[in-house]
Amino acid sequence: MSNLSLLKEKSLIIVFSYAPAGLGHLRVSNALSGGLPQSVTPLLIGSHDEATSSMHKFMSIHSYTRALMEWAQVGIQEDIFAFFYRRALMNDTDELYEQIAQIFDQRIDVPKEILFVATHFGLGLKIAAIKNKLESEKGVKVHLIVQVTDDSPQHMWYVNGADLTFVPSEKTKTTLLSYGKRMKYPHIDIQILPYPISLKMSDILSDAKLKQREKQLDPNAENKINMALPVSGAAVGMDFYKVVMNSLHNRSKRFTFHVVSKNAPFTQYFLFTIATLPYARLYTSIHEREVVDLYEDLYVREVISLEITKPSEQAFKSLYSSKQVGGSVILFSQPVGRQEYDNLDFMRRHNLIFPKHETRELMAKFERGAKLTKYDTEHLFGLRDSIRGLEIPTNPHKAAAFIWWCFENELLLNMHNHSKTNRTKSLETLSNGVELFWQQIENYLQHAATSLR
User: Fold this and answer.
1) CA gap 441, 80 in Å, rounded
2) Of these four, 73, 99, 244, 331, which has the most CB atoms within 10 Å of its CB?
3) Which residues have CB under 8 Å from 450's CB, separation 6+?
4) What 3-state class would DSSP assign to 308?
């Protein structure tokens, strides 16, 4: 990583802002924070709007409200929703302004510059709305950086007033700029960078641990199989997880399940049930930030070969190779919300999961009870060396049976082996997004300093 000298300036404060709508925004903030020089201690501010968190859970868990949410995320209804929601957010900034004002009041040395990194559009829009007020009343230069946390060009991510917006793909960049132009919003600088994934999980496995991961996925071996099951911030999939765990354990005692979850009223019964299972390990905290750390520490401490997760921001763990700590084979459950369908589309475009027609062919073979032949394997992988995940059925009993079928037919083992090799990647699929993010910020600060002279 380059020197990043401007980020080390004592007169600059770096502030991450997030919203209580799932754990994704915290995961991205955590990943980016890990890429800062050791001498830099960023601050973290978040919305205290519990209504946002509650609405996110309600809309995600219930099928009717989930359908309503997905309907509101496309077409003319998205235009209408984004217009009014944008105005509501930008008119509700008093609490945030007071939070930021306290930062100045509590510091002995008054900062000259403050750099906000927004991993949620809500805080991004609010900061944009008070940016001029902060500069005039506090005498500080404000920089607003927005990191889009899905490969989804939802209109709310067009943050008027952002100095830089980073997106994971050209497709999202083009669509957002087209929307801004259509709405006659001021042009913003949108740049493409690989999605920022945890540096802690980017380390290369030792040869012994890499062999251990391979043996876990080998149906002919006897090694324990470590499967991670992170419960989403919206607590989606708890009943699904219970059935899948029980069903896989009944098929093989090799499975050990590592469940990571926030300890909250809506998860307590599930966690109590899991705690009674001898083949499960539980990692919980009442604090969301600690839940993110527990998840990453699990991967560092144990060799995890499989993970079942939603295609949320977790989809971008597919950017790791199987040689890296975070490079487990990922099994994607049913998508919830437009952004998760968009993330699946990103992975298909980059051969990180199989195309839809090949997924259907696999499912048909599974339902017939057919075996995968050598020809099937050669056909599935061909010249691909990047398949990192699979979509699994919505029904948990069927999902468990499908996972077991893939395991027995060595499909999971082949996915691991084929993604070990170094492969030619596009910018969008590199795994060093955090490093590139801070290099771009350093370049931006240099240009901003030059412009002021």
Assistant:
1) 33
2) 244
3) none
4) strand
Domains and CATH numbers, the chain: 6-196+432-452 (3.40.50), 207-428 (3.40.50.2000)
**Coil vs helix vs strand at 449:** helix
Distance CA 453, CA 450 (A): 5
For the chain, counts of helices (H) and of strands (E): 17, 12
CB atoms near residue 381 (< 10 Å): 19
Tally Cβ neighbours within 10 Å of residue 250.
11
pLDDT confidence band for 58 (50 / 70 / 90): very low
The DSSP output letter for 278 is T
CA distance 258 to 448: 46
Unique residue bearing structure tokens 């100095």: 163
* Whole-number Å distance between alpha carbons of 258 and 216: 15
One-letter amino acid identity for 95? Answer: E
Q: Is 349 exposed, middle or buried, given 0-12, 13-18 or 19+ CB atoms closer than 10 A?
A: middle
pLDDT tens digits for 359-417? 999 999 999 999 999 888 888 887 677 899 999 999 999 999 999 999 999 999 999 99
Cβ(405)–Cβ(326) below 8 Å: no
pLDDT digits (tens, 9 = 90+) for 302-335: 999 999 999 999 999 999 999 999 999 999 999 9
Three-state secondary structure string covering 363-416: HHHHHHCCCCCHHHHHHHHCCCCCCCEEECCCCHHHHHHHHHHHHHCCHHHHHH
- Cα 438 versus chain centre, distance: 18
Query: Which residue is associated with the tokens 């201690």?
Result: 41
Residue for token pair 């005692």: 253
Give which of 107, 97, 113, 83 is closest to 47, Cα–Cα: 97
The CA distance from 417 to 323, in Å, is 9
